[in-house]
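Contributing new records

If you add data, match the layout below exactly. Sequence lines come first and carry their own label; structure lines follow with theirs. Keep one chain per record. Anything else will be rejected by the validation script.
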Amino acid sequence: MPVELWYLVAVFVVAIIGFSVLKRPLYECMFAAFVVLVAITGTWANMGRYIWDALKEPTLYVIFVFIISAALLSKTSVIDDCIAIILSIFGRVRGGAGFVAIICSSYMGSLSGSGPGNVATTGVFTIPAMIRSGFPPHLAANVEAHSSTMGNMIPPAGMIAIAFAALDTLYPDTYTMSQYWLCLWGVALWFILQRILTLYFMCRYYKVQPMCKEDIPSLKQSLRHGWKAIFLPIIVFLPFLLTSKFDAFFVSRLGEAGAKALNSSLLLFIPSLIVICGVLLSGKQTVKTMTLPVMGRSIREGMLKVVPTAALVLFAYFISNVFEDLNVEVAIGQLISSLNMSRLALCLLLPLFTAILGMLLPGSTQVKIFGGIIISIMASAGGNPMLAAAMLPCICGAMHGVTPPYCACVYTGMGIAQSELKPTLINCIIWVVIHYILSVIIMMELLPIWGLVG
């Protein structure tokens, strides 16, 4: 067994002992695992670079600013107005607010390209609406988290370009991006259906009932009182839509580097815009009461919720940077290739393997390092190369962010729902297992995929 695999085992052992035996917070366990990893690999000289590279990751700051903006928005009436409109439309349906979260967050996630950022963006609307309609907080957090992470596998998400590059390198001039996108949409439809069915049964298990008729706000009254609130989701959505649909325009004006920087900065700029618009749309009274002391207290409350989550994400990136530096992913990929496993065994192993890696490594890193290997070994075992490439965002990107202990999407949802750690993670594992089972079924080509080219 390659020594690089022992590095991975060491990280998991330290994290599990710290969290399960010593009962330490998960972010402390991840930092301890990072220190142990640096020690056993003798990379002390690079420790500063690992930390600095992690501090430059936009996801870290996205989590901060969105949860703080959610705390500020809670002092306005605009969120309540949005929730009232959602409940007036879907309150009569069992779990109606959850189905809204699945559809809206899946689509928004494809535009933002950030699972945690999407949880925070749409979660400030959908999570309170779910809780208000009878969802347990931990279920509301997971519905939003597992819906938002879908965005990584739906075009035009950024990770998709990395996966197609791996396919095009192995099979040049064989597949077009249009064909690949159609296949991705075909795969995504099954996962969206899976989440809808999972939520359907979850609502029955947790006995989520349709709201009482007397508690359902009148749509006419909700729109009359809070029609301005409709503009807030539009304000959130519009920048992502414009940068997605007119990508060529922004590249021609700003260059590729500038367009990429614009997309990254949107997730940091939008929260401030949301808060400003939320205050203004709430009316003159809110503008008067939103004083600096009130905003300061709200930010302090938000910081108390977000710091443990941000610390966990930061320390996970520390570990990811060490692994990249040591080429751990390449060594493990070569080991899998050398085993000459059957197609069924590969379909069972690869989603499980990437799910485990997703506990520590970003999905884009997994696709970049393992993408070509996964496509080639699946093709050599008789699988369809395009389907293997289409599944990369599903088993790497969509799983990353919801597989504990990293699960940044879930922790972001927890921060908004204020749910407890244990029930949230237990419920999260159920969603992950169901996603894994569907991944295996699709990779075995047991379901028809719209747009798949042989």
